[in-house]
């Protein structure tokens, strides 16, 4: 059973890597993003999207850990 899970994980990782590679190769148009009056230099669309993906993958688990730690704190109630 463990071997099947490993093979499935490898297949999923390879599939995701293939999709990201295909996306990068298909989106080579240069664009410049502008936010609050600041413009970035011209880079391919895929660079911005992959960077957003990586930032989301880093921030998502951190927010999940913060929410879990808030739930574990005991709620103090007034005792009469």
Shape descriptor: flat
Helix content: 55-70%
Mean pLDDT: 84
Number of domains: 1
Number of strands: 4
β-strand amount? 5-15%
Structural class: mainly alpha
Main beta sheet? 2 strands, antiparallel
- The rounded Rg comes to 21 Å
Low-confidence stretches: none
Number of helical regions: 2
Order of helices and strands, N to C? HEEEEH
Largest sheet strand order: 1-4
Q: Gap between N and C termini, in Å?
A: 55 Å
Protein model, in words:
The chain has two helices and four strands, in the order αββββα. The chain has one domain. Helix content is 66%, strand content 10%. The chain has a two-stranded antiparallel sheet with strand order 1-4. A two-stranded antiparallel sheet has the order 2-3.
Features of this protein?
66% helix, 80 residues, mainly alpha, 2 helices, two-stranded antiparallel sheet
SSE inventory with pairings:
Layout (H helix, E strand, L loop, with lengths): L1 H25 L3 E2 L2 E2 L2 E2 L3 E2 H28 L8
Antiparallel strand pairs: 1-4, 2-3
